[in-house]
């Protein structure tokens, strides 16, 4: 009979495991550690705020980068082609039912040598972000802006009396397009807009300008106040349009000296620093019950009068 040590075999540990006994490998200890502070919502990839942050970053990174624009819809595309808006590609969805406008768009694109690409509907949906494109889209390249210094030098070389328009706080591209059209019609030499918080030359501005944006230079300025001072150094009178100005369109002579017309928005008007640096503040006489004029209408009225003064002067 086998003999045991101790009482009742208490010194023997029974086990079914073979080999050395292993621990948890510190898994449980690590599991007890805290995971740190909860990340901000915008840093969690699955959160809506993270997606919004990414959209903001993409927008900011491309703010000053030239990007193409896609005009969709049969009427807008035909209008752009009629206005001689520069285009790099006409997209037509495969299987789209043809009508007079689609046929006209294709014919005009062919006559201007614009490439036509047929693509599946789902690709067009992705390009536009929705299905509201009517099976057609016109790709417009970035507008090429001029430099203010180049505009001044060009007028000096031609020995002409310069006439420019500066737009301040104008955010509607239709207003911008209408001002470009008026400036071109009345002998203006260019339009200047700020880089930020301003309408830019988009397809809407192109259409409103009726194609004159292809002929009249548009420049972007990083700082309108510095731009105003630059014009003044070059002998220009800077006239700000503002209700209650010390001059009116009837009393101011804009036909003799080089002139810059500063136009603000109907609501905000001209920015304070720009206003303070204008040589003259001028109003446009209207009947008493009309409070104000649309920015493009005001610019057109002044440009027309200054052009008349130059013709008779």
Concise summary:
This protein is an alpha/beta fold and 313 residues long. 36% of the residues lie in helices and 16% in strands. The model is unreliable at 1-10 and 61-65 (pLDDT under 50).
Kindly state the mean pLDDT as a whole number?
A: 84
Helix content: 25-40%
List the total number of helices.
Answer: 11
Distance between the termini: 138 Å
Strand content: 15-25%
User: How many individual β-strands?
Assistant: 11
Shape: globular
Largest sheet: 7 strands, parallel
The succession of helices and strands, N to C, reads HHEHEHEHEHEHEHEHEEEHEH
Class of secondary structure makeup: alpha/beta
Low confidence ranges? 1-10, 61-65
The Cα radius of gyration reads: 34 Å
User: Can you list the strand order of the major beta sheet?
Assistant: 7-6-5-10-8-11-9
Explain what this protein looks like in three dimensions:
The protein has a 7-stranded parallel sheet, sandwiched between helices. The N terminus is likely disordered. By secondary structure, it is an alpha/beta fold. The protein is built from 11 helices and 11 strands. α4 links the parallel β2 and β3.
